[in-house]
Amino acid sequence: GQSLEQPSEVTAVEGAIVQINCTYQTSGFYGLSWYQQHDGGAPTFLSYNALDGLEETGRFSSFLSRSDSYGYLLLQELQMKDSASYFCAVRDRGQNFVFGPGTRLSVLP
Amino acid sequence: ETGVTQSPTHLIKTRGQQVTLRCSSQSGHNTVSWYQQALGQGPQFIFQYYREEENGRGNFPPRFSGLQFPNYSSELNVNALELDDSALYLCASSSRQGPGELFFGEGSRLTVL
After folding, report:
1. How far apart are CA A4 and CA A17, in angstroms?
2. Parallel/antiparallel/unpaired status of strands A84-93 and A53-57
3. Per-residue DSSP letters for A18-56?
4. Which of B29, B51, B101 to mutate to test the interface with A (most CBs of A within 10 A)?
């Protein structure tokens, strides 16, 4: 079977750093993506890791360890607008993605 | 560059009815995927179309079917609607040559009564 695990909720204050972890078990693996979704909105792409290591995009970074079937999303200098749900998604073949259950991030003033 | 658009945005149906949801993919994208997202959960993969053919399917029954047209737009059809089909249906387009990024539309929220 295929499964991804993420913490259900994370709370942090403005300006802080938060890490959202994702572990996965899938039949195939081509890469790990992260998406942000605000309430009532569409998921929007944040990052994609096909190889082990850290990818940095502005305030957001994503890490992948294929040997550990593990990745994380690191959000720095948190802002109120970062309050949203964050999903990891494994690309298991072609352009097929299996999404995790999501982590709801609340940023407090 | 035109983004992914979906229609209708909201609709209400009753059990047993049929529904068709539509999606126009982003310019230059030849692959369309459909996802079902229940409230508070992650998107669940329904199926994907590439060059007008189904190219992968998730764990959904045959009453979920789809089409892709030559202009890469797509339809999702659901027959014999059940209460559990109530969800947000998301369409995502992508390029086969892309790095694995999906571009999502705003979704169609279906309520089955």
Report:
1. 23
2. unpaired
3. EEEEEEEE-S--SEEEEEEE-TTS--EEEEEESSSEEEE
4. B101
> How far apart, in whole angstroms, are the C-alpha atoms of residue B6 and residue A74?
31
| β-pairing verdict for B87-94 and B31-37 | antiparallel
pLDDT at B48: 92
* B24-68 residue pLDDT tens: 988 888 889 999 999 999 999 999 998 899 988 999 999 999 999
pLDDT per residue as tens digits for the range A13-69: 999 999 999 999 988 888 999 999 999 899 999 999 999 999 998 999 999 999 999
Q: Which one-letter amino acid corresponds to residue A86?
A: Y
Count the alpha carbons within 13 Å of A77 in the hemisphere toward its beta carbon.
Answer: 4
Q: Any idea what DSSP says for residue B39?
A: T
| Nearest CB partner across the interface for A33, out of B100, B106, B107 | B100
Do A89 and A35 form a contact (C-beta atoms < 8 A)?
Answer: yes
- Cβ contact, residue pair B102, A45, below 8 Å: yes
Give the per-residue pLDDT at A94: 65
